[in-house]
């Protein structure tokens, strides 16, 4: 069974540490949604301190963003994680 944890209520200053702790505890993934912050940025912070855990954006609202902004964010995560395309950045 794969367990995924939401970082939605985690303070921004604690995202990287919390993601690393969840990975050590055996969680299969972490996610964030666009309720009060940019989930692409949150996943980038989580990617810095993790190696294996899956990273996902539960909700990323595209219509108020330029397509290039979304593309740059997705490419940044791809480069940082070495993952393939898609909404979940799983590690290779």
From TrEMBL:
InterPro entries the record matches: Luciferase-like_dom, Luciferase-like_sf
Transmembrane stretches, start-end: none
Organism: Blastococcus brunescens
Protein name per its UniProtKB record: LLM class flavin-dependent oxidoreductase
Domain Luciferase-like: 12-80
Domain of life of the organism encoding this protein: Bacteria
């Amino acid at each position: 069974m794969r367990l995924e944890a939401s970082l939605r209520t985690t303070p921004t200053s604690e995202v990287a540490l919390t993601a690393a702790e969840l990975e050590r505890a055996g969680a299969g993934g972490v996610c964030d949604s666009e309720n009060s912050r940019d989930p692409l940025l949150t996943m980038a912070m989580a990617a810095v301190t993790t190696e294996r855990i899956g990273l996902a954006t539960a909700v990323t609202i595209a219509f108020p963003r330029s397509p290039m902004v979304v593309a740059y964010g997705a490419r940044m995560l791809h480069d940082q994680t070495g993952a393939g395309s898609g909404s979940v950045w799983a590690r290779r």
